[in-house]
Amino acid sequence: AALKEALGVMKKRADDLAGTQVYFELGWGDDLPDLMSEVASTWEDVGFKARTGGVTAAEFPSPARLAEFLHTATSLDLPFKLTAGLHDPMTHEDEELGVTRFGFLNALGAAALARSEDLSTREVHDLLLAEDVRDGAAGLSLGDYTLDESAAHDFRSIFGGFGSCSVAEPRDGLAAFFKHNS
Length: 182
Hints:
Layout: H1 2-15, E1 23-25, H2 32-42, E2 47-51, H3 63-75, E3 80-83, E4 92-94, E5 99-101, H4 104-117, H5 121-128, E6 133-136, E7 139-142, E8 145-147, H6 149-155, E9 159-162, H7 168-180
Parallel strand pairs: 1-2, 2-3, 3-9
Antiparallel strand pairs: 4-5, 6-7, 7-8
Helix pairs in contact: 2-3, 3-4, 3-5, 4-5, 4-6
């Protein structure tokens, strides 16, 4: 009841920002999929934001948590964006920090494929960790799946973007990815 009341107040204030997509950030708890569903049922135009990293290990979600978030957002057709931590195209282990650093190609590819292929949370999880990410004539391939132009275009209808504290790192990483895959 308290959540619905708080959402009502926020929605009323957000209505003053006509045409602006509002994103709601929830914690990485066990009830994340249920909370997303409840928030979306109360405020149908709301989007969701997930942080994928930070400066300490505690700020990184596990692959299972991020997979739950992406699966819930795509299966319920909820707008979302990802912030913090997406500096590199491919997922890799950060030995020094002891975390999985998600790649933006893995995260976005997994989400787009979850939407187009109706993937399970487990399949999204596996794509987040996939090492065989390739650029090909048919589209971006992750594992056994290929994201074609039509599916990527459809995904854009719910994907609000991703944030990184650096513009150069994602750009340079993507240039290296394409150079390696050409």
